[in-house]
Each structure stands twice: as C-alpha cells, then as structure tokens.
Design goal:
With about 170 residues, this protein is an alpha+beta fold. The chain has two helices and ten strands, in the order H-H-E-E-E-E-E-E-E-E-E-E.
Length: about 170
C-alpha cells in the first residue's frame, strides 16, 4: 500500500512539473498576442480575410451553433457571404431568394480602430439583385469577430466567429 501511495505522489509531482513547464511567461504571452494582433491588422489592411462563423444570433430566437463551414470573406472590393439566415423576411423572391449566400461588389468599405477596446470596426455596405445590406464587423486583435447584418427586406441577425489565419 505504501508503494502504491509513493507511486501516486510521484505521478502527481511529475504532472505538476510538466504543467509548469508548459505555461507561457507573461512576456511570452504578450509577445504572442502582439504577433496575432499584427497578423489581424495586416489582413485588414490588405482587405483580404476570411471569417469562420461559429454561432448565429437571430433577432427573434435563441443563439445557435453553426454546424457547417459558414464564412464571410472579403476579397478586396468583393464580399463573399455564405451565412445561414433565420428570421423574418418582408419582401423576397419566391422560394426565399439567396438569403445571405451571395458574392457581390462592395459599395462602401470603412474601418475605424478603437485602441481602448483593441478592436477594429469594419462597415461594409452593398447591394445585390435582391436587397441592400449593411455588414458591421467588430474584429478584435485576438482574431475573434462579431458580425451584425442588417438588410432592407429582412430582420437583422448577428454572428460570431474567428478570423481564419490559414485561408488563402
């Protein structure tokens, strides 16, 4: 019994020692965060980034996990919107139309960095053959993103996700 308890204590001490080695120092953590923020700012400056959506927040319903590969992509002056829609539509084509799944030219694109909150506000306005849209993105320096979508013919909806640093 004594031998078993000694082995148990040794394993606990080994686990504690290994976990202590795996943690980052505050300086290393700060450097890693700064590097990620630098990547985010470069993607925004180049106007070429992809956001992987993980949650949706319909106006009249509960938050829901997104199960497919939904995303929002900015390619220079083009927006590729592949987002689910859950909500009320006021006047749309028969069968529901495209919803939030389309590729369109960006009409207006503006950014504003808010240093105190470590985020960049991106506003995208565009029109396609079905509707007029306003996408408001809150892109944090750590890569997290909140998306608010307002359309003239549909109820507003929000999403959250992360920037895909590996997207080409």
């Amino acid at each position: 019994m004594k031998k078993l308890s000694r082995i148990f204590v040794a394993l606990v001490l080994l686990a504690l020692a290994l976990s202590a080695c795996a943690t980052l120092t505050p300086a290393e953590k700060k450097a890693k965060e700064a590097e990620k923020a630098k990547k985010v700012h470069k993607l925004l400056k180049d106007k070429h980034y992809t956001i992987e959506v993980q949650m949706m927040y319909p106006q009249g319903g509960m938050a829901q996990n997104v199960t497919s590969d939904y995303s929002l992509e900015v390619r220079g002056d083009t927006l590729v919107s592949y987002l689910p829609y859950w909500g009320r539509a006021y006047s749309v084509p028969y069968g529901g139309g495209k919803g939030l799944n389309f590729l369109a030219q960006i009409g207006k694109y503006s950014t504003q960095y808010i240093e105190k909150k470590e985020l960049t506000k991106v506003t995208i306005e565009l029109t396609n053959d079905e509707d007029t849209y306003l996408y408001e993105l809150s892109i944090f320096d750590n890569g997290r993103v909140n998306i608010d979508v307002r359309a003239r013919e549909r109820e507003p909806i929000s999403f959250s996700g992360e920037i895909d640093f590996d997207a080409k």
